[in-house]
Amino acid sequence: MAIYAIVEAGGKQYRAEKGTFLLVDRMPEDEGAKVGLRPVMFRSDDATVLEPDELAKVKVEATITGHERGEKIKVFKYKAKKGYRKHQGHRSELTRLEVTEVKMLTRRPAAAKDESAEEKPKAAPKKAAAKKTETAKKAPAKKPAEKKAEAEGKTSAKAAPKKAPAKKQPAKKKESD
Q1: Rg for the chain, CA atoms, rounded
Q2: Which of 51, 70, 88, 119 has its CA 20 to 30 Å from the CA of residue 132?
C-alpha cells in the first residue's frame, strides 16, 4: 500500500502521492515555488490519521510546475417557443503541482515567524501600563439616550412624554339666508 494524503487546495480535495501531478485552481505563487498543502487525511501502511492534532504533524509539499488554462466550457440556455437563447462560456485558470513530499513527522513543525513582527521594535512595557491607567481614570461613557437628551437641550435623563396632537373639530357649516 502506498503512502498518500488527501489535501485541500482551492476549496477542493485531492489525493496526493509522492511524484503525482495535481491540477488545482490558480495559485498566486510563481513557477518553481514550493507550496505546502493542508492535509485532511493521511494514510500509510501503519496507520490512518484523521484527528487535527495528528494532522499537524503531516507534511505535504508540492512544487508549482506551471500555470495553465482549462478546457473551454460552453453554456447554452434555451426556452422553447419563447425566442430565448443565451450563449456563454469560460476557461478556468489552473495551476499544475508536482507533489514532492508526503510524510508523517515525529513532532509538530515549528511555527513560522512573521518578518514584520521582527522588524518592529517593541514598545516599552512602562508606557503600555501608563496608557492602561489613563483609560481607567476617565469617566464612564455616557449612554446613547443621555447623549440624545443633552443634544436636544434637556438635562434630565428621561425625556418627557410627548402629548398626542389635538384632534381637529369639524368646521361648522355656514347658514345661508
Answers
A1: 34
A2: 119
Q: Is position 114 within any domain?
A: no
> Rounded to an integer, what distance in angstroms lies between the CA atom of residue 5 and that of residue 103?
9
Residue 175 lies in a domain: no
Domain assignment of residue 131, yes or no: no
What does the DSSP assignment read for 55-77? Answer: HTTEEEEEEEEEEEEEEEEEEEE
In a domain, 149, yes or no: no
Residue ranges with strand state E in the chain: 4-9, 12-17, 21-25, 34-36, 38-43, 48-49, 58-79, 84-104
pLDDT in tens, 114-132: 655 555 555 555 555 555 5
Label residue 8 by pLDDT band (50, 70, 90).
very high
C-beta of residue 104 within 8 angstroms of C-beta of residue 57: yes
φ and ψ of 84, to 5 deg: -100, 115
| Backbone angles phi and psi of 160, in degrees to 5 | -70, 140
**Structural domains of the chain, count:** 1
Please tell me whether the overall predicted TM-score, pTM, comes out greater than 0.90 for this model.
no
Residue type, 170: P
- Place 99 in a pLDDT band, splitting at 50, 70 and 90: very high
User: In which domain, by residue range, is 33 found?
Assistant: 4-108
In the numeric block, the cell 482549462 is attached to 70
